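Hey, quick one: can you model this chain's 3D structure?
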Amino acid sequence: MNDEDRDWREETRSLRDTLVRELGQPCRLERQLDGGDWFVAGEPPEVIVRLDDATLSVYRYEAGWNGPHEPYVRPVALVTVYWHEVEPFQAWMLCHPLVSDARAKRRASFGKCRYCKVTLGPEHMHSADVCQGCAERHLGVVH
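Sure thing. Here's the predicted structure for all 143 residues.
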């Protein structure tokens, strides 16, 4: 391994460590087939950050349903930074305001179920104050 490869791997590791630290817990890491890593931060999920060999991207978390038992996630791209052009921590600092904004907007869409008291994303709510599970149990709704 030459020095350039070693530097690149160290920068990638440094940026990955920064993401884990700065995104907070819970933060689920999902390895993709193309070699990129998806950092899904929050529970319920709030924001997605993707890191690959060349880019750092921020996505607003959006989800929905193809059918009653077929959820899907549709990340909405906000920004992509070619992180080799700047220092790894600077790449994060460029993305941080968009991560904060995406999280705030997503949290504003959450609802708390009046029955089970669990906070969920809008895709899991039957109405503003009843989750899908409690709608089935308490309101007789069939999904």
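One thing worth noting: The CA atoms of residues 39 and 62 lie 14 Å apart.
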